[in-house]
Amino acid sequence: MTDPLFESTTLVVSQKAKLIELQNEYAVYDADANQIGLVRQVGQTALKKVARFVSSLDQFMTHELEVVDAAGAVRLKLVRPRKFVKSKVEVSDGSGRPIGKIVQLNMMGKIRFGLEDANGTQVGSLNGQNWRAWDFSIQDTSGREVANIKKTWEGLAKTLFTTADNYRVTRNEITAEPLNSLVLAASLAIDTALKQDSRGLG
Fold first, then answer.
1. pLDDT tens, position by position, 128-152
2. Number of folded domains in the chain?
3. Exposed site from 115, 124, 140, 199, fewest CB < 10 Å?
């Protein structure tokens, strides 16, 4: 029996549209538009929501996400600690056992994240075209592309008047663990880890 979240070759990630984004939530679909999962933000206190509304302090806050399958089971937990210069996302399984980390490697030029296992050994990388790119290549340590992420057109009104992002994840192959889980985590953490900081009302 296949595991859609971890074995589907195509995922479409759709951030639920909210005019003022106080809590992140994403629906995850397969290539046939069947919802196979959900990414939800947890641990948001009332004070933190107020701070997100009145300022651009998102990057200085800790963000916690849960990846839930269609049956409602938590499959991955993602924690992005407070960001001061570079982002880092800690990845664990549904039981809280560490899987690895997604670590920002540079600030300028072609943005890169290292994908590390629980021991800190790099097992892959997430590579953007440039600082504002929404096209990313996920590669193993040999430089072979194992997956890619591309932003999809969401319509002019949606682009202008909401903060929702939709993007497609294509797996070229299903890799061994922990890289396979980190590919999924990297695909679902891009907005929180990298793009989220460019938003806000302040």
1. 876 566 789 999 999 999 999 988 7
2. 1
3. 199
